[in-house]
Amino acid sequence: MNAVSDVSSHAIARARWRPAEIAFWMLALSCAFLFPSRYLIMTDILRLALFTLSLDLILGYAGIVSLGHAAFFGVGAYSAGLMALHGIINEPVIALVVAGLIAMVLGFLTSFLVIRGVDLTRLMVTLGIALLLEALAERFSNITGGTDGLQGIEMQPILGMFAFDMFGKTGFFYSLIVLFLLFLLARRIVNSPFGLSLRAIKNNPLRASAIGVPVNRRLIAIYTVAAFYAGIAGALFTQTTALASLDVFAFERSADLMLVLVIGGTGYLYGGLIGAVVFKMLQELFQTITPQYWLFWIGLVLVVIVLVGRDRMHRWALWLPNLIIRQIAGRKAVVAVPESDAP
Amino acid sequence: MTTLFTILFDGVAYGMLLFVLACGLAVTLGLMNFVNLAHGAFAMAGGYICAVLVNNSGWPFFAALPLAFVTAAAIGVLLERTLYRHLYTRSHLDQVLFTIGLTFMSVAAVDYIMGSSRIFIKLPAALEGQFDFFGVGIGRYRLMIIVICGLLTVALQLILSKTRFGSRLRAAVDDPRVASGLGINVPQVFAFTFAFGCGLAGLGGALSAEILGLDPYFPLKFMIYFLIVVTVGGSSSITGPFLASLLLGIGDVAGKYYVPKMGPFVIYTIMIVILIWRPNGLFGRAAAR
Amino acid sequence: MTIALETRGLEKSFGGLKVTRDLSLKVEQGARHALIGPNGAGKTTVINLLTGVLKPNGGRILLEGNDITDLAVHKRVLRGLSRTFQINQLYADLTPLETIGLAVSERLGRGGDWWRRMGTRGDVNQEIAETLGRFHLLDVMNERTATLPYGKQRLLEIAVAIATRPRVLLLDEPAAGVPESERHDILAAVAALPRDVTVLLIEHDMDLVFSFADRISVLVNGAMLVEGPPDEVARDPQVKAVYLGEAVHA
Ligand SMILES: Nc1ncnc2c1ncn2[C@@H]1O[C@H](COP(=O)(O)OP(=O)(O)OP(=O)(O)O)[C@@H](O)[C@H]1O
Ligand SMILES: [Mg+2]
């Protein structure tokens, strides 16, 4: 039957790799060779991209607004730091996964609070959990090093073979591989029936439950997965910078994260990656103008983005790429246009 | 026993302060379902205005307080008319992003103009120190706060229950759509309430400089407190937020006294328990639809 | 005859307002049962109670003899109870294909499947195609739901309920707001529902009710006024009074 093949091709289309996507990753890889002197900042971008990917999973796909996603980043960061510092797990990859899992457990436990109640309650709970963890880390400064952070972290070579170097080359490739693998996993997840049910819940939870979607269970699942991602991002941060201090939990980190995501656009996975690049460039720009007042500029960007309208901004952003693609390939849309956020 | 009373007294003062700071937020949230995370910025504005007037221009403290109210309210009206009103129909995410943006800008701007260190407002001598009341040490300043905030609360309750504006406001909070159907100009009611709420926050900011501390990071530090007051208290009346504020104030003070090492965790624990028990807050219906 | 759906002494109030009063209703297996009543009689509330969107203040609900009063919304769906909404409840950003696909996946218990991609299961695709075809949605299957004309959205609203393969289907004014030109498709879809599906229909259009139903319950002020076969209900003086009264008011 013709209709069936239509259905299957349309259904699969969303999950199919587009040329622009392949180009995107080739470009990311080629950066390693184009800018060999800038590994550190590029690693920074990759970490941020992974962290934002995590937020996109809950915000962009499931519609959970979080003011405290740094909680999981921080737990991952401290877990990795403590494991390395005390030689509990020396091999970075295993430590990375374990740190992610620890954050994941925390995510699972707190998800029950987060899924209850309305948006406002979620804001308070997510913010509250991050603040609570920050206060805990401060309280147990004998373990966490307090405001000074963990001192003297030394990383062992990855898989016992690739030592971290001072130019950050190893760190960069390590981060890039981790990001890519987790991106593939996320891509798989969002294009599955499970991912579809998340988008349905975000659009209309009432209808979702009325066709048999166990809404709470799905939200718990994705929140837990997102916590894992954030934990990995935090662990990468510690492993590649040998730092972990109280500010991993800071509210500003969670807020920046939202900014990164809305710059890039929600609900199509690349938003976090593109947003991270733009954000870091903005940061460099503003910091050369007025280093101390970075906060002001982030605020301004947020305000302007919202006033202009996120949809409109992304249409502008895609205007040029669309023009180019249309010249070359005679068709439209480089990346999927981000979904509008259901009010 | 006397320490218990002192804690209770300090806790009540703290709680009432929180109520004056946050009640505007509760009402605007109930009215427009608008999440305004920048509420603390108005409080900060009031606090700094008062500080400048008292410390630099030599105004008496009690003369500067009303001006803190008026200035914060004026800034509120200005922002409401120019910016906020475009966002009422937007998603909560947009509102959150926008108001966080405003908060950040206010923090950086105050930091730039006034410096980043904590500032103090010179208090009249009559307000300093404490006196003894049947063995219980009563701080004069805190007593004044309880009196002022108590009067304000009573006045608010009277305005809400007795005046024409109050009944319109209640109708609008109850169901904005029905209210506009009844010919109530909801946006106007909202603009006025918003300004008034900002004014109260400004006044609260001025009063709280002594107790909570005033620095450019005030709006960020107390964001969680405001959110707790509103979520735990609900937004269908001002009684809910009032009781929630008292609970928070007393809990926080008691926690910091009895288990100083675990101080900040006490309120978070209370909050979490309450939410598990009643996800939509202790009092009244869900804070947001 | 077996009873597919039953309520016993159902009660619901909003604050002081009683909207469901001691409602006992029996819907027989395979019936075409209509629930009618003036605006605000509490018909939609009954559906919300039956499906678990609202919790009753009292009374029990039984589906095929099993008590489902305390069951979560989604679990009732898996037990074979599905509904449409009076006001469309669709996924604005999803396509009809995705909407139906999700309903089918959930029914097959594959909704939590996070590894398999959508569109890779032949039997699911087959069923999606059939459902879309039956509701004339094939031509728009890849468009965002929000951009569809209202009539198509209304069809999708019914289609997605059908895609859960209910044994008992609750239709809340399926043709509400649909322009005359597109009404036919909806009515045909309702008429073509499989006979083994028990249907409880809420509708204001009396022509549709009397042509469709083999049993009618009249709800007034949240309480059951009359119940019986169509001709009996049509002749009932109380019902006439309610509807005439309404006609006079209108
Ligand atoms: N969530 C709610 N809160 C308060 N009152 C409600 C709520 N839902 C319904 N009501 C009230 O309950 C009564 C019954 O409403 P319901 O929607 O069940 O009527 P209905 O019979 O479906 O009417 P219609 O034919 O107009 O669809 C109405 O008076 C309505 O205002
Ligand atoms: Mg109805």
Structural description of this entry:
The complex is a heterotrimer of chains A (343), B (289) and C (250). Chain A has a domain at 18-251. Helix content of chain A is 73%, strand content 0%. Chain A has 15 helices and no strands. The longest helix of chain A has 27 residues, at 215-241. Chain A is globular, with a radius of gyration of 20 Å. Chain B has 289 residues and is an all-alpha fold. Chain B has a two-stranded antiparallel ribbon. Chain B starts with a helix and ends in a 12-residue tail after the last helix. In chain B, 51% of the residues are buried. By secondary structure, chain C is an alpha/beta fold. Chain C has 9 helices and 10 strands. The termini of chain C are far apart. The model of chain C has no long low-confidence stretch (mean pLDDT 91). Chains A and B meet through α6, α12 and α14 of A and α4, α10 and α12 of B. The structure holds adenosine-5'-triphosphate and magnesium ion. Residues 43-44, 86 of chain C line the site of magnesium ion.
Largest interface, counted with CB-CB under 8 A? A-B, 45 and 50 residues
Element-level helix/strand string of chain A? HHHHHHHHHHHHHHH
From the spread of the alpha carbons, the general shape of chain B counts as globular
- Gap between N and C termini of chain A, in Å? 39 Å
Cα shape of chain A: globular
Question: Which quaternary structure do these chains form?
Answer: heterotrimer
Derived from helix and strand composition plus strand pairing, the structural class of chain A reads mainly alpha
Name the average pLDDT of chain B.
Answer: 87
Spatial arrangement of strands, main beta sheet of chain B:
1-2
* Computed structural class of chain B: mainly alpha
Gap between N and C termini of chain B, in Å?
Answer: 44 Å
H/I helix tally of chain B: 12
Strand content of chain B: under 5%
Strand content bin of chain A: under 5%
Present as ligands are: adenosine-5'-triphosphate, magnesium ion
Tally of discrete structural domains of chain B: 1
